[in-house]
Design brief:
The protein is an alpha+beta fold. It contains 19 helices and 21 strands. The chain has helices at 24-35, 79-88, 117-127, 132-156, 160-178, 182-189, 193-199, 215-226, 237-248, 292-299, 302-307, 310-314, 353-362, 376-379, 383-386, 417-437, 453-460, 503-518, 522-529; strands spanning 2-3, 8-9, 14-20, 40-43, 55-58, 61-64, 70-71, 94-96, 100-106, 109-114, 229-232, 253-255, 260-266, 269-275, 280-288, 322-331, 343-347, 371-374, 390-399, 445-451, 491-493. Helix 1 (24-35) packs parallel to helix 18 (503-518) and helix 4 runs antiparallel to helix 5. The structure holds flavin-adenine dinucleotide.
Length: 533
């Protein structure tokens, strides 16, 4: 018997499908495959499951790492909610974030993003009365991209012969927007730079400023939150906690502390994996959800990389930005501390987003180009029962990986004084941004720790501490190889690199991968036929 995810299972030497990594993409694919009668094994190198949906606990607090809010799950009728319900047997519950989900702060001015697309439009028109036409057209275009996205993503799961017949036709309408930058499209609608700065005030959700990001990515995030944000009741760990029992029904399971070192390929077909400790697990099919860079650089045998020219594909994509996250634990409940549910996006007053990023990349003493402040304990109605008299806050900014690179080979918690003092400098600056917005919190902090890109590398295995897998620039969306099926028989990809970053994107990737593998549309099945408990 081997200790697996919170339960003891007998681990077998052969499975129908092995999944590498336990992020949202793999969890979703594993649940879909299990529901189709497959016995699957998820192998996760971290000591805890969930990928970026995992939580960590310290000193009587709990922090969510990669979930601050999710859109389109508030109501049971949305596609995303139905997909979540399908893979969790409806056991995952959501708390609405209330009337305002994001607050864009530019200098002394705050611009609220209220729930409901009509409210959003009215609010923007109240801030920018002379831009009514541009705001209406902006929202129209966001929806236009969303409609075009359905065929674009459906194409990814099609069999090769269908791709040949309808592939280009299915991809074209989406690519008309995806291949342009956000700035390019917005400048067509308005020359009001402040409006552009406000409308792109969530760019941290996809990691690239308007001059570099694909408009398709921008539109997908904007639309995702138009109807408000929600947070998993009980915290992000509820995602894996509600999926694990669904897996267990067919003896599918998750092993943690289980690092895969290589995919085994025999006669051109994936046949299983070899673990870091040399143990082998065999399977009819293998899926990697560890990101395309990790997969191609480290998990596939050399001869396969050469045979299918896979290394050349990596030259067409870029790793996304690295980040710092300051995790705070505070004395006092969210009510006592008057913590808001809405997130803050704090920006410099003077420059556009692209210019302020450039300035900061040259000189990290310059004003932060973006600071995101999230109040997870205020969003979770079960928090105060679970952690009475306490609260948490996460504060995130971007940082160049290079300034932390020299600590790559040091050990966690033993990286030395220079590392700690660099982190301390950033910590103090981030705290001042928080106190400016919420001055009542001065003196209330009981515990704090800053994660660096080296922390992300250590726990998540993203080589350059990537926040969001590969970048969401226009070029990414043109790459046909970002799809579930690979040229290696029985070897598949899933996760954020196949669709987009975001829990919703990764989850959808899981459904696409399961659909491509089974040759049947599981998205449609989940949405139309509902689900069975
Ligand atoms: C700070 C931050 C905040 C975010 N906030 C939000 C938000 O508010 N809302 C939202 O929707 N999205 C958010 N995201 C994005 C979202 O969390 C991710 O896009 C999504 O969870 C990625 O899922 P994935 O399936 O691609 O896998 P990942 O979560 O990237 O997981 C990959 C897993 O593979 C494992 N692995 C790697 N190599 C190996 C190996 N060799 N063997 C075994 N296992 C391996 C890793 O340990 C990891 O667990 C945020 C992300 C970050 C970083």
């Amino acid at each position: 018997m081997v200790q697996s995810y919170k339960q003891k299972y007998k681990v077998e030497s052969h499975y129908d499908v092995i999944l590498i990594g336990s992020g949202m993409g793999c969890l979703a694919a594993a649940a879909c495959l299990t529901k189709e009668g497959k016995k699957v094994l998820i192998l996760e190198r971290h000591y805890t499951a969930g990928g970026y949906t995992h939580v960590f606990k310290r000193k009587g607090y709990e922090w969510d790492v990669g979930i601050h809010y999710i859109g389109e799950v508030n109501r049971e009728t949305t596609v995303l909610r139905k997909l979540f319900d399908y893979i969790t047997d409806s056991q995952l519950k959501w708390a609405d974030m209330g009337e305002v989900y994001d607050r864009i702060v530019i200098g002394e001015q705050t611009y609220d993003f209220p729930k409901g697309v009509e409210n959003f439009k009215d609010q923007m028109k109240a801030y920018f009365p002379s831009e009514e036409g541009a705001i209406d057209e902006y929202v129209n275009r966001v929806y236009e991209v969303s409609r075009a996205s359905r065929q674009y993503y459906a194409e990814k799961a099609m069999p090769a012969y269908m791709k040949m017949v309808v592939g280009n036709r299915f991809r074209k309408p989406y690519l008309e927007y995806a291949s342009r930058t956000t700035l390019d499209v917005l400048r067509e609608l308005t020359d009001n730079e402040l409006l552009i700065k406000v409308l792109t005030g969530q760019y941290g959700d996809y990691g690239l400023p308007p001059g570099k990001s694909s408009f398709a990515m921008h539109a997908s995030v904007a639309k995702h939150y138009f109807k408000g944000g929600a947070f998993p009741i009980g915290g992000s760990a509820q995602i894996v906690d509600t999926i694990a029992p669904v897996l267990g029904k067919n003896n599918s399971t998750i092993l943690t502390n289980a690092e895969v070192s290589q995919v085994l390929v025999e006669d051109g077909k994936a046949i299983g994996v070899e673990m870091k400790d040399g143990k082998r697990f065999l399977a009819d099919k293998v899926i990697s959800g560890t990101g395309i860079i990790n997969t191609y650089k480290y998990l596939l045998p050399e001869d396969q990389l050469r045979k299918h020219s896979l290394t050349a594909q990596l030259e067409k994509v870029e790793p996304s930005a690295a980040h710092l996250c300051l995790y705070l634990g505070l004395n006092g409940s969210p009510d006592e501390l008057k913590l808001p549910k809405a997130n803050y996006w704090v920006y410099p007053e003077d420059l556009d987003h692209d210019a302020s990023i450039e300035r900061y990349l040259q000189d990290q003493d310059a004003e932060f180009p973006v600071v995101y402040i999230s109040f997870p304990s205020a969003k979770d109605p079960s928090w105060s029962e679970r952690y009475p008299g306490r609260s948490t806050i996460d504060i995130i900014t971007v940082v160049p990986y290079d300034i932390f690179q020299k600590w790559e080979d040091t050990r966690w918690k033993k990286r030395g004084e220079d590392y700690e003092s660099l982190k301390d400098k950033f910590t103090q600056r981030l705290l001042e941004v928080l106190y400016k917005k919420e001055p009542q919190l001065r003196g209330k902090i009981d515990h704090m720790e800053l994660s660096s890109p080296i922390t992300t590398r250590h726990f998540m295995n993203y080589e350059r501490g990537e926040l969001y897998g590969i970048d969401h620039d226009p070029g990414r969306f043109e790459q046909k190889f970002l799809q579930p099926k690979t040229p290696i028989k029985n070897f598949y990809l899933t996760g954020q690199d196949i669709v987009t970053a975001g829990v919703g994107g990764a989850l959808f990737a899981g459904f696409l991968t399961a659909s491509a593998m089974l040759g049947k549309n599981i998205v449609e099945k989940a949405v139309k036929a509902g689900f069975e408990n």
